[in-house]
What we know:
The chain has two domains: 11-50, Homeodomain-like (Arc Repressor Mutant, subunit A); 70-213, Tetracycline Repressor, domain 2 (Orthogonal Bundle). The chain is built from nine helices and no strands. It has helices at 11-25, 32-39, 53-66, 80-95, 103-106, 114-126, 134-155, 173-181, 186-213.
Amino acid sequence: xxxxxxxxxxxxxxxxxxxxxxxxxxxxxxxxxxxxxxxxxxxxxxxxxxxxxxxxxxxxxxxxxxxxxxxxxxxxxxxxxxxxxxxxxxxxxxxxxxxxxxxxxxxxxxxxxxxxxxxxxxxxxxxxxxxxxxxxxxxxxxxxxxxxxxxxxxxxxxxxxxxxxxxxxxxxxxxxxxxxxxxxxxxxxxxxxxxxxxxxxxxxxxxxxxxxxx
Length: 214
């Protein structure tokens, strides 16, 4: 069927509809014909905005990322809390769309998000963080947050009791005791992980500087 002479849908409407299908029916249920049917158009109409299925997936990934609001914090000595808040916002956005989480592994190139990395680097610089630590912090934050949150999203909703599921106190007594002693929810464990990483970078830098001055 030939493509219509004018676009019948907007790009934003198509992305929103695609995400809705994935949220409600799962990633395997998504296809260009399924999206077109949902929007009440023919499949060729989608090609005004997207070259192929991968382009739509990339737009969905960007939509999810855009739902993670940037924290409203001023640069300063408590700069790690900016990244803790950003990480929590990112986690919330992804867990809101669990079925779409795998898309972020394949369709979220750094080149597309370079503006956000520039903003974060400017925040670090304004906070007095040495510039040679910026890449370590930004790269580490991406790997940590993506790995932790996507793992959580793909496991499904969890609680303190299900952080390590199916633990048998008889055959895994030490792990069972550790779980019983843990008072942190998955969200708090994630938050603490970000703080540990960021403060660890600062601590290691201070240790190195002190050693070089001896």
